[in-house]
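Weekly structure sync, notes
Attendees: PL, DS, HV (note-taker this week)

Item 1: Fatty alcohol:caffeoyl-CoA acyltransferase
DS walked through the input record. Source organism listed as Phoenix dactylifera. Sequence as pasted into the shared doc:
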Amino acid sequence: MRALPQGRSLLQDLKVTILSSTTLYPSEKTERRSMFLSNIDQVLNFDVETVHFFAANLEFPSTAVVERLSPALEKVLVPYDFLAGRLKVEPGDDGRLIIDCNAAGVELVVASSELKLEEVGDLECPNSAFRQLVAKNIPDNGLALEDRLLCSFQVTSFKCGGFALGICNNHITFDGLSFQTFLQNLAAVASNRPLATTPCNDRRLLAARSPPQVSFPHPELITLQSIPHPNQHPPSTLLDSLSSYLHSHLFHLSPDDISALKDKAKTSPPPAASSFNVAAAHLWRCKALASSTRSSNKLSTVLYAVDLRSRLKPPLPRSYAGNAVLSAYATAACSELEAGPFARIVELVYKGAERMTDEYARSVIDWGQLNQGFPRGDVVVSSWLRLGFGEVEYPWGRPKHSFPVGNPQWDIILLFPASGKEGKGMNALVPLPTEDVEKFRSLFYKFLARDVVN
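Item 1 (cont.): predicted structure, written out as tokens:
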């Protein structure tokens, strides 16, 4: 019933041929400037890949889509001038990253597949082969930092008339909410409408205080003294795999499952038992207990992003076009996660987000001014539930499916809306070493059972 088909065969070769590659530049002259990057931006120097699948539209074959998309991109590169820029290391001793807004451009790749969309497989199930639908910002032979694209786009047509829009952007450019705003603006311009929202590009709104004031302990952050600067190394404590090779596995939470988890959490404070909190608590519990390295007295820490826009004083503009998220955390002993009660685990997740006040967030930002380090947790949950990528209305319609291309080497659980044949609810893409898969699967369904009260 809840179980997704096991051992499903995922197509590995999408038979994609690259037809053309074009560099696009802002449609108007933009002022060359250096964009300040906050301490949150500094540690997010890695690429995020998303794929957006569209059904066939007789009015918009893929050639017409490219004809609309290309000038629309050139127009939005004016208000989003940083997207056409390049990263640079700021002169000085601290080696901070900045964006040189030099109008060097973004890339638009046009490709075709020999397959029909229905032959690609279950679009509800993210597949590493979907990376063939996304142009790389950094080619395999590498590039100097100052030559690397910050964003690229790929339109891949299928034999049925459907197509995929793949986007690869450096995480420094956007967080999830600002990326959704960018997509809405791109769709509006492609529809010959004005921008839906004027982006706020002032990242000094999240600058550290002078002098920095670290007013809280931050056990969720780890200092890496051996790394000269984050731009020379990805945020490995958050992204690197375990010693064993990770494989991604898809697990579905139906609306009934989510209701059952909420029932188990009903003794927690009323705001605590949100859909995200109960799902995150459930996944945290299962992943921590499935680990072959766990012991009953071992502490487990879960990390999950919290949007700062409404939490700061004064609030950030909703249109803030940068990274305005920090990692909330919750910690518990494995024995507590195993024995329950589940309501207590949910409450820990809830309190982790509640901890993210203005003063706490400023303390984290100031910590980043004094230290070189990253968030650290053994379980990381990245929620795409409220980003609304699938609700963006392009001239050719809304995406059938829109989701991240998960990297199997990143130990991050991706949580995103479900809408396919398994029904509505949530899907969780969980990276696991081979030795932990069956244990996780067993715990996942055991703790969903209606007669398990803890």
